[in-house]
């Protein structure tokens, strides 16, 4: 078992072996229909013959992490960074919305990070934007060992791969695509978004996360479904994104050409089908941001949260409750019906603001903004809420926090 991977973490169909450690030659996956855009670095010397790892191993692997909204990408990324003390990781974090909550959650743990806000990386008009970011992260002075790109929860994996493969940066190589799947939400998300199957098929590795939220039977059901969608695709089961970083960073695609292209054929890569952004998941979603320098009233805010519209699938950010807990901001994560607050101390000099991002379908920005504005603490007692007022919030704080 390579990479010291715990055997019972791997759940591939037919006892499928985890990815083999063979060099990856990005040029081989280059879309043949777009030779004009093929970068010189990849046109350059012919791909090293199979077995010659020199060129490939000098390149910095770029790992893509995708997964539907709230599946646990940022959680996994943070775990990877905590557990990879000997590896210098450069991160590109793409959040859906102009307040990059994910970047805030990752900042401070990483060697170098570039946040991308208010857009979807998979819709980068051309590869130059990605190239610019990769150029910055692969500057030899930074001595980055691996670049990890956390896509937004609505990104289209095939478009991400295409953008990456069209990079002119000769210091990188494609490092694989990890799709994070929320074990508790997979079935219902798939009902709403059958295109998730394609995302699973595009992956080199599935991380079946949040297995603590499902029983054994449901866990097995999801594993069976994944195996049906993409037979033989390795699956790691995880809680709170705790996977062996060695597996992800050393990951390289399969050995034989058939296997190498199994999830993403040349035809898939060449087709412009998935560049029709109206078909991307995020085309159906809207994102609303809310910022307030005034503290929020915890009771009013909980009324808002408890009565949030059904179409509001994802709610995340930080809340400033002021007098109720002046030392701490409250990280908020809601995914569907799931809700959790995590109190964290304010940094020294950090502006005391509430920053929220709401993502959903059929949500009305004006109504949401108005309802949140109504939560702003007003009057002479503004910001003076005490612990009793925090009861509703504290119900959703884990004991460990
Ligand atoms: N119970 C449980 N909660 C988890 C697990 N992994 C992550 N979470 C929680 O799920 C919520 C969403 O996790 P994130 O890591 O922010 O998810 P994400 O995929 O980055 O979210 P987006 O960027 O919005 O797509 C957070 O509250 C996490 O603490 C897990 O394995 N079990």
UniProtKB/TrEMBL annotation:
Q: Which organism is it from?
A: Streptomyces himastatinicus ATCC 53653
Q: What is the designated name of this protein?
A: CobW protein
Task: Name the keywords, alphabetized.
Answer: Chaperone, Hydrolase, Nucleotide-binding
* Reactions catalysed: GTP + H2O = GDP + phosphate + H(+)
InterPro entries associated with the record: CobW-likC_sf (IPR036627), CobW-like_C (IPR011629), CobW/HypB/UreG_nucleotide-bd (IPR003495), P-loop_NTPase (IPR027417), Zinc-reg_GTPase_activator (IPR051316)
Q: Which family, according to UniProt?
A: Belongs to the SIMIBI class G3E GTPase family. ZNG1 subfamily.
Quote the CDD domains the UniProt record gives. Answer: CobW-like (cd03112)
A GO cellular component annotation here is: cytoplasm
Query: CobW C-terminal domain: which residues?
Result: 285-376
Keyword presence, Protein transport: no
For this UniProt entry, the molecular function terms from Gene Ontology, in alphabetical order, are: hydrolase activity; nucleotide binding
Q: Where is this region: Disordered?
A: 1-53
């Amino acid at each position: 078992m390579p990479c010291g991977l715990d055997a019972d973490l791997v759940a591939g169909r037919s006892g499928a072996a985890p990815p083999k450690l063979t060099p990856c030659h990005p040029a081989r996956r280059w879309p043949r229909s777009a030779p004009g855009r093929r970068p010189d670095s990849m046109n350059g010397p012919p791909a090293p013959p199979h077995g010659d790892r020199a060129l490939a191993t000098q390149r910095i692997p770029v790992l893509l992490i995708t997964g539907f909204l709230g599946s646990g990408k940022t959680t996994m990324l943070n775990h990877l960074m905590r557990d990879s003390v000997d590896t210098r990781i450069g991160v590109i974090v793409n959040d859906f919305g102009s307040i990059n909550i994910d970047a805030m959650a990752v900042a401070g743990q990483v060697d170098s990070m570039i946040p991308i806000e208010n857009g979807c990386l998979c819709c980068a008009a051309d590869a130059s934007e990605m190239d610019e970011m990769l150029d910055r992260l692969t500057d030899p002075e930074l001595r980055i060992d691996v670049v990890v790109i956390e896509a937004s929860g609505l990104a289209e994996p095939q478009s991400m791969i295409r953008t990456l493969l069209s990079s002119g940066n000769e210091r990188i190589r494609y490092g694989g695509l990890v799709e994070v799947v929320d074990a508790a939400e997979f079935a219902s998300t798939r009902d709403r978004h059958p295109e998730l199957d394609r995302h699973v098929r595009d992956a080199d590795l599935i991380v079946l996360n949040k297995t603590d939220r499902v029983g054994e039977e449901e866990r097995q059901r999801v594993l069976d479904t994944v195996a049906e969608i993409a037979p033989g695709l390795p699956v790691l089961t995880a809680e709170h994104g705790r996977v062996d970083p060695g597996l992800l960073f050393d990951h390289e695609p399969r050995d034989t050409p058939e296997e190498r292209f199994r999830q993403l054929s040349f035809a898939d890569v060449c087709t412009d089908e998935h560049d029709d952004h109206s078909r991307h998941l995020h085309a159906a979603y809207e994102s609303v941001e809310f910022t307030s320098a005034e503290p929020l009233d915890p009771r009013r805010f909980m009324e808002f949260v408890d009565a949030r519209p059904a179409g509001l699938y994802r709610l995340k950010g930080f809340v400033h409750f002021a007098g109720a807990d002046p030392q701490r901001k409250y990280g908020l994560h809601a995914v569907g019906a799931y809700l959790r607050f995590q109190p964290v101390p304010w940094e020294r000099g950090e502006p005391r603001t509430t920053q929220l991002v709401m993502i959903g379908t059929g949500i009305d920005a004006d109504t949401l903004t108005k309802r949140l504005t109504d939560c702003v603490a007003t009057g002479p007692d503004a910001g003076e809420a005490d612990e009793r007022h925090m009861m509703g919030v504290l119900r959703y704080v884990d004991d460990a926090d």
